[in-house]
Amino acid sequence: MNTAMNRRTFVRALPGLTVLAAPRTRSAQETDGAAAGLPAITLLKPQTEGGKSVLAALQERRTVRNIRPDNLPPQVLSNLLWAAFGVNRERGAFGKPGRTAASASNSQEIDLYVVLPEGVYRYEAAPHRLAPVIAGDFRGRAGRGAAATAPVNIFFVADLTRYDQGPGQPDRRIGDAEVQKGYYYVATGLIAANIYLFAASQGLAAWFHNCNREAAAGDFKLRPEQRVLYAQTVGYPA
Does residue 9 carry a pLDDT above 80? Predict the structure, then answer.
C-alpha cells in the first residue's frame, strides 16, 4: 500500500460544508416524545477526519456480539450517526442533500430509530440531531443477549412514502411493491456497511441482526407505510 493510500481515512472532510435545515413542523412522534419528558438531543458537530484508513477498516471489519453496556461519548455517537447516514454535501441528486449512503433516486427512504437506555429517538440528518419518539428502555426490542443492554441499538425503518412517483422519476416501476422492497433492503445494507466500517475504524463492536419488528413498530408509533427491517447494535467490545 502506498503512502497516499495510507492517508485515506474512512471519513473525509468536506471544507466549508454548511448543512441548511429546511423549515419543518413537529411530527406527532416528536410531540409525544417531548410530552413524555424526553428532550431532543442536538448532536455535536461530527468529526470528519481520523480513524483507520478504509483498507485498514475493511481488514478489521467483523461482527462482535459481546458488547459492554458502557455509554458511548457524545462525540462518538455523533460521528457514528453521521457516518451511518449523515449529510455529506448540500446538493445531491433530485434536489436533495447528499448522504453518506446511497439510495435509489436519492429517495432516502430509510429512517434510523436510535434506541438509547433512556428512550427512542429518530435521527434527523439535516439538522444532525435526535428527535424524541418515546421515553423508556426499549433495547429489548433489538433482541436478546448484548443487544438488550448495549448503549446503542439502531433500527432500520423504511418509509414507503419517500418514493417519488412524479414525472421526474426515472424509474417508472418505483411504485411497485417488489421493486421498493429491493431498494429498501439494499439501502439498509449500505447504511449497515457504513456502521460496520466506522466501528472497525474506531475500535468499536457492531452487530447487525434481526429484531422484534411487530413490537418495535407499535412502540415507535409507526405509520402503516413504515416497515421495521433490522437492527444493528453498537458499543465497546466486551
Answer: no
Give the start-end residues of each E strand in the chain. Answer: 41-42, 87-89, 98-99, 110-116, 119-124, 129-135, 152-159, 205-209, 226-235
Burial profile 91-118: b = 16 or more Cβ within 10 angstroms, e = fewer: ebeeebbbbbbebbbbbbbbbbbbbbee
For residue 108, the one-letter residue type is Q
Q: Would the pLDDT of 162 be above 90? A: yes
Those residues whose C-beta lies under 8 Å from the C-beta of residue 67, and which sit 6 or more positions away, are 146, 147, 149, 150, 205, 207, 233, 234, 235, 236, 237, 238
- Percent of the chain, pLDDT > 70? 85
Q: State the pLDDT confidence band at 16, using cuts at 50, 70 and 90.
A: very low
Report the distance separating Cα 82 and Cα 74, nearest Å.
12
CA distance 231 to 98: 23
Q: What is the pLDDT of residue 3?
A: 37
User: Is residue 12 within 8 Å of residue 82, measured between CB atoms?
Assistant: no
| Phi/psi of residue 131, nearest 5 degrees | -90, 130
Identify whether the C-beta of residue 135 lies closer than 8 Å to the C-beta of residue 37.
yes
Q: Give one word for 82, left, alpha or beta, with left for phi > 0 and alpha for psi -120 to 50.
A: alpha
Which DSSP symbol is given to 83?
H
How much is the pLDDT for 114?
98
DSSP conformational letter for 45:
P
